Amino acid sequence: MRIELIKKGGLPLSFAVLITAGTLLLMLPGVCTRELPLIDAFFTATSAVCLNGLATVPACEFTFFGQLIILLLIQLGCFGILSLSAMILLLAGRGLSFNNTLIMYNLNDRFSLAGTESLLRTIITYTFITEGVGVILMLPGFIFQGFGILKSLWLAVFYAVGSFCNAGIGPLPGDIAQAGRYIQCVSLALIFLGGLGVYTIYDLLMTVKKGKKHRIRLHSKIVLTCCAILITFGTLILYLLSLTPTGSDLALFDAFYLSITSRTAGYSTVDLVELPTACLTLIIVLMLIGGSPGSTAGGLKTTTIAVVFSALLSSFRGDNAVIIGGRTIPLRTVLRAFTITVIFILFAVFGGLLLSAFSPQLSDRQCFFEVSSALGGTGLDAGGITPQLTSGCKLLVAFFMFLGRVGPLTVILFFVGREKPAVLHYPEERVIVG
To answer: Which of 83, 242, 314, 408 has the maximal Cβ count within 10 Å?
Structure first.
């Protein structure tokens, strides 16, 4: 019954209710240092709940009470994404019911959790422990910068939660770029852990605990391989593309930081408007790819891209099956990966064209960057585009933030349970393509 409710619209509805509640709270007196229009309150709540980071009003202009509301919305949005992603992975198993002993067994034979409640407790524990460690590590960095103990504690809490949740929102003017390299390194580690996914982390912990007795799953291997490739090549290409006469040369650390945050969080150590067009184009691609399943990151997800890329390689080689790591990927998984990719790209193109039509003051590149940032759940803003938008365009971008967060999950839920046993096998007939 609980799953049927989610499949019938409970997933978008739960986020809509949280966004509405957040909007009403942000409209209370004493929340912002200036008068906050309804559209900006709604946009801020949507960005926080969807773990995006785009902002029409910087977080530094909110009072402590307002920042606390934003932080709570981020944390609740994080729990919602992680738990709903977990439920989807559970539903992806064959013959699943929500009886306690059957849930995790059908997901993977290496899990020993005993039901949804245990799964959610594990997610919450993992989240709080990781964020807590982040706060402890960040606190000395802010203290050494002269913020004072209480202020440093608040900044450490906000940036630890914001980094792990891949929210990209921060209370400092200029955001994480104003923090030192030490804090940026801690933030980067939290962003990576938040975008890696609960199941990959669990798999790695089990490998450390049991050693050779535990066989790391193909899912985790794909996630780790994709992350390594995207981070390595993203860093090198961003660094090389920035070495242009018209662009601002990126330090290697800034390129490394940007290659990770472009796929997950909206923090940036540099002003993106100073980067050349080639760098911004690559960032758009990284934003659309996103993080990994079962994580706080948005986008297409690394495993989706891996399956699509492997299918293309198999097609070029003339293979009749998609094989990754010595395992055959089911055809239904390949079809889902292509479906999600095509839908996501169409959303990005349609959104960019729509925003361009209603924002003539913005270039096409700025429009596509803004929509990709919203749709990919990244929250990067190249040149302060978001605050310049009209009320109608703010609603449009907020819609794409919401769509980018719940859209891919809803598409997967649409397919879950719709697989029909093959009763009839029709004869094959070739069709000329290309």
So the answer is: 408
**What pLDDT band is residue 83 in, cutting at 50, 70 and 90?**
low
Q: Say which residues have a Cβ less than 8 Å from residue 116's Cβ, sequence separation at least 6.
A: 87, 90, 98, 100, 103
Q: Which amino acid is at 215?
A: R
CA gap 43, 34 in Å, rounded = 16
Q: What is the mean pLDDT of residues 291-315?
A: 87
In angstroms and rounded to an integer, the radius of gyration of the C-alpha atoms of the chain is 22
How far, in Å, are 91, 129, 205, 219, 282 from residue 198 at the CA level?
16, 13, 11, 12, 27
Tokens of 115: 């039901």
Share of residues in the chain with pLDDT > 90 (%): 30
Task: Using alpha carbons, select from 353, 405, 419, 345 the residue that is nearest to residue 374.
Answer: 405
- The answer to whether the beta carbons of residues 287 and 378 sit under 8 Å apart is yes
pLDDT higher than threshold 50 for residue 100: no
Note the helical H segments in 242-276.
252-261
Distance CA 377, CA 392 (A): 20
Partners of residue 322 on adjacent β-strands: 329
d(Cα 386, Cα 273) in Å, to the nearest integer?
13
In 10 A of CB 32, how many CB atoms?
21
d(CA 12, CA 326): 37
pLDDT at 3 over 60: no
Partner residues linked to 323 by β-bridges: 328
Residue 57 DSSP SS3: coil
Q: What is the DSSP letter of 62?
A: B
Number of Cβ within 10 Å of residue 279's Cβ equals: 26
Q: How far apart are CA 53 and CA 378, in angstroms?
A: 7
